[in-house]
Amino acid sequence: MDRFFNPSSVVVIGSSNSPFNLGASISYALSCLGYTGRMFAVNSKGEDVHGSRGFKSVFDIPGEVDLAIVLTPARVVPAIVRECGEKGIRHLIIETAEFSEAGEEGKRLQEEISECAREFGIRFLGPNCLGTINAHNKFCCFFGITPGMYDGVFDRPGSISFIIQSGGIGALIIDSFRKDITNINKVVSIGNKEDVDESDLIEYFKGDNTEVICLYLESIKNGRKLLETAKRTKKPVLIYKVGRTGEGSKAAMSHTAGMANNDVIFESACRQAGIVRLKSISELYTLPKMFTSMPLMKGKRVAVFTNSGAFGGITADLIVESGLEMASFSEETKERLRSTAKLFNVSNPVDLGPTLGKQTFIEIWDAILSSDRVDGLLAVPNVWQKVVVEAICELGNICKKYDKPAAIYIPNAIDRILSIRTEYNLPVFESPEEATRALTVSYQHYRSLGRKEKEALAV
Amino acid sequence: MDRFFNPSSVVVIGSSNSPFNLGASISYALSCLGYTGRMFAVNSKGEDVHGSRGFKSVFDIPGEVDLAIVLTPARVVPAIVRECGEKGIRHLIIETAEFSEAGEEGKRLQEEISECAREFGIRFLGPNCLGTINAHNKFCCFFGITPGMYDGVFDRPGSISFIIQSGGIGALIIDSFRKDITNINKVVSIGNKEDVDESDLIEYFKGDNTEVICLYLESIKNGRKLLETAKRTKKPVLIYKVGRTGEGSKAAMSHTAGMANNDVIFESACRQAGIVRLKSISELYTLPKMFTSMPLMKGKRVAVFTNSGAFGGITADLIVESGLEMASFSEETKERLRSTAKLFNVSNPVDLGPTLGKQTFIEIWDAILSSDRVDGLLAVPNVWQKVVVEAICELGNICKKYDKPAAIYIPNAIDRILSIRTEYNLPVFESPEEATRALTVSYQHYRSLGRKEKEALAV
To answer: Which of A356, B127, B212, B303 has the fewest CB atoms within 10 Å around its CB?
Structure first.
């Protein structure tokens, strides 16, 4: 599977210098992003394209080729697959569309490709996909890339990997990480996933340098396989799936030809396999930072800290509605809180008046997180003064000390939240709902890890 | 009620030149924001404060005073209320805290104030509140304001009015409108609402230049009164209420001394009175633009347009889950759509490939919105090129032409959404969930208007 992300040589079949040629955009991306493997292009004229040496056929390319990227008209793809097979290429990314998502003729073509690939032992991604990105080695075979578009990914490689069944969602995710503290490790667009599917890729990301595995799916190819693969994975697996309703399934079908799946079955599979099911598309890029920047939450008792009184009530509602609990402090904890500053409320939610020194915040958070009646902190500090941001910068250390997480939301306009987050590299969420959700999924993953370990022992 | 927002003379009792004096921040705000009424300050030295003429007592102020703002220690407030009464002041904003939210002694003091006010026919806001803002006449008696803090409100007055039971939420709302196309008309913080309550203020906003009435409540003072007032209001009334759970109510109680209310009763009251109940605090500032920038949605059949295929399925799920329906196009509409461009899908959701000219978008949207099988449009155009933004700029006119709304979401990182929204003054939402929700509340308000009209005829 690693060849799809780390090929030492790659050919783009259908890359030429004609105007609007999409294959050329891949050759261009490979050359300008800094990928260092050997690069070839195949086109009818055999011409070089953006620094990739050109040939009329794969047979003319000297030596072995790790990976072929196919972006030609659909009808010629079966013949190209055969040629690749005969050349000895065993990994293909078929980006061309107009296959099973487009009707009967496309379906037939897709089956033909599949048979041919089996014959040669070829593994392939797609058809109807965008390909892969590997931020660490600057490999990118997404078509339609223009210079600078994804600089944020390659300049600052991260540890989150994505398996997506839509190029558009890939672009959205890449764009959104620009404004966050985590970043992308690898992205793979699976399209109609005739051969390589989501489970194969989870299996791969289980073993590489990925910390969090995220999926956007329009259909599940093989539910049993997904369930079994996810069960063996200790890394968090986060899935957003379209098709919770009949209308949603229908729309997805016209997009990537997914079969309508029974959503109830998927839901229960998630529970069994310890998959975190996401509730909105934005959770794909907002929640991973909870796993990379904070310890897991090992119980459901949450303490709330706020210095903007209203958020005590708002977050208490959200915590209870999420199935978590409001922690109940011991007299000792309350006494410690009383000694820190004038608090409006020393019970949970802790409500701090207009303060003061950075140290006050730190003492309060230490008092809360050191309590054995508290499993995690929902912190809603109001950022009036710079000193509050400086205090928040220390919160991560207190969390590490007690091995408990904090989810932070600062009640400001979204642009201010974004700028504080990126400037100080802080795991700040964009709404109280998102922060509560982050604690919820953290605890959910912790519990499923426990179940997985038990099952592993039982075997 | 208008005196609270449009006083021709105002005294701040407890405004002095001592360091950290909160009253002084009000005198300062009045003088520097551009309020043009007469301004006085009362303090023990009788000194002038930031351009407000100073006196030792209200009795010394020459002539009548429309409004007194009280920000003194709680224990002296009853005596001050009496003095104001004797001076003939009939409107008070009591911003001082430490009343019923702080325990038995505070509760007693609050009752004392109330009795005294009744004796003199005084109406008052608070105690434990922030006061009022009127963007149009640049009147602001929020304490703790620093220069420039709320410039966005006064530079660009809007038509949304807020009744809030928390100063912190007020600040968040004001901050957030900086990045939106609508803006604030008036804000009133009601605190412990011993006298003037949410219903009195809805009644007032019903008759002024407000277009949308938004509330943040921690408790309902008089459910019957709220129900009856909202029933007589044709303007949209949007409420976020804390205390959906027992823990939320408990937390709110320590903040503004609200009584725990039965949430089930509130929910059913909202339905009866045509109140739109908000699901998150951010909806207080994100949803009003749907009412100010688009016609109401008069049925539940929604068409989806996207040029980022995945969003067809994502939004179809959201529409069905919201209780709306995916519109089903006539053959005629499909034919018209086919004639505009190469579409991936001419059924609903309409999926447009990589295009092209501004005119194509406009023709497609016209074809959709002109159909008598469509009540509204959920548009998810992908902004790759400037031409797409230019097309979106025209969408408002098509909506006006057919008297149907469109909710727009552009799948980009949040900072790009914000910048397109403000630069082009477009009603763009921040997520597909928010856009779907906007259509849902639009239709909800339309239906309740119908019910209200029927009931009015029946009377």
So the answer is: A356
Instruction: Answer whether A166 sits within 8 Å of B310, measured CB to CB.
Output: yes
- Chain B residues with beta carbon closer than 8 angstroms to that of A412: 172, 175
Q: Which residue has the tokens 């209320």?
A: B81
Domain with CATH 3.40.50.720 in chain B: 1-128
Contacts of B311 in chain A (CB under 8 A): 168
DSSP B353: -
DSSP labels, B415-432:
HHHHHHHHHHT--EESSH
Burial B186-225 (b: 16+ CB within 10 A, else e): bbbbbbbbbbbbbbbbbbbbbebebbbbbbbbbbbbeeeb
ipTM: 0.91
CATH code at B294-446: 3.40.50.261
Q: How many angstroms separate the CA atoms of B431 and B434, rounded?
A: 5
How far apart CA A46 and CA A30 sit, in angstroms, is 18
CA distance A379 to A452: 30
Q: What is the mean pLDDT of chain B?
A: 93
Q: Does A361 touch chain B (CB under 8 A)?
A: no
* Strand pairing report for A91-94 and A123-125: parallel
Q: Which residues in chain A are contacts of B166 at CB distance < 8 A?
A: 308-310
Judged by DSSP in three states, B302 sits in: strand
Q: Which residues 378-407 in chain A show a CB within 8 A of chain B?
A: 382
The segment(s) of chain B belonging to CATH 3.40.50.261 are 158-293, 294-446
Q: Contacts from A268-274 at CB under 8 Å and sequence distance 24+? A: A269/A223, A269/A226, A269/A227, A270/A239, A272/A227, A272/A231, A273/A226, A273/A227, A273/A228, A273/A230, A273/A231, A273/A237, A273/A448, A274/A230, A274/A231, A274/A237, A274/A445, A274/A448, A274/A449, A274/A451, A274/A452
| Residue A119: burial class (beta carbons within 10 Å; 0-12, 13-18, 19+) | exposed
Q: Which CATH architecture has domain A295-446?
A: 3-Layer(aba) Sandwich (3.40)
Per-residue pLDDT of chain A (459 residues; tens, 9 = 90+): 999 999 999 999 999 999 889 999 999 999 988 899 999 999 999 999 999 999 999 999 999 999 999 999 999 999 999 999 999 999 999 999 999 888 899 999 999 999 999 999 999 999 999 999 999 999 999 998 777 778 888 889 999 999 999 888 998 999 999 889 999 999 999 999 999 999 999 999 999 999 999 999 998 888 889 999 999 999 999 999 998 888 888 887 766 655 556 788 888 889 999 999 999 999 999 999 999 999 999 999 999 999 888 999 999 999 999 999 999 999 999 999 999 877 778 899 999 876 668 999 999 999 999 999 999 999 999 887 888 999 999 999 999 999 999 999 999 999 999 999 999 999 999 999 999 999 999 999 999 999 988 888 876
Architecture field, domain A158-293:
3-Layer(aba) Sandwich (3.40)
Q: Compute the nearest-CA separation of B243 from chain A (Å).
A: 6
Contacts of A247 in chain B (CB under 8 A): 316-317, 319-320, 326
CB contact under 8 A, B313 and A252: yes
CATH code: domain B1-128 is: 3.40.50.720
Q: Do B247 and A320 touch (CB under 8 A)?
A: yes
Contact with chain B for residue A298, Cβ under 8 A = no
Mean of per-residue pLDDT scores for chain A: 92
For A320-357, write each residue's pLDDT tens digit: 999 999 999 999 999 999 998 777 788 999 998 766 68
What's the confidence (pLDDT) of residue B341? 78
Q: For A102, which residue in chain B has the nearest alpha carbon?
A: B344
Q: Looking at beta carbons, which residues of chain A come within 8 Å of B430?
A: 414
Answer whether residue B15 shows pLDDT above 90.
Answer: yes
